[in-house]
Amino acid sequence: MKNNSVKWVIGHKVTLCDQSDDYDLAIGETPAQVPGPPPHLHHTFHETFLIVEGEMEFMINGETKIYKSGQCADIPPNTLHTFANKTDKLCRWVNIHRPRGFSEFFKSVGIPEEEENARGNSIAPEVIQKVIETAPDFDMQIKM
């Protein structure tokens, strides 16, 4: 995996992996006690999370479920969802969006890992506002 870029996106560390196929692949780390994005849906993207370490709480269409290491959360288009790490341990995950294109959101709003205080800066009010304002440009409909 060459040319990977690492960004902090609203408190989550996201490594974007270059792909030659019609999907986006990201490897993520969510620190302990970090909430996820606001509830949202994608009209076009089918999203899958594979939890590889720890656990993550997902809300999918109003139902809350905890996914643990080795389990997948499958999120079809037009499915309201969010997630959070409510534990005291790091959660590592793999995320796939199909078709390709959602990685542009991470690139647009993410703070480069090498920037000083990248994690903290990724949850600054002006960054959160940018997420809310630009989400529709990336097929992300936020439902507050």
Automatic annotation (TrEMBL):
One Pfam family in the UniProt entry: Cupin_2
Q: Which domain of life is it from?
A: Bacteria
Q: Coiled coil located at which positions?
A: none
Can you give the residue ranges of the Cupin type-2 domain? Answer: 37-96
InterPro entries assigned: Cupin_2 (IPR013096), QDO-like (IPR053146), RmlC-like_jellyroll (IPR014710), RmlC_Cupin_sf (IPR011051)
Q: What is this protein called?
A: Cupin domain-containing protein
Organism, scientific name:
Christiangramia antarctica
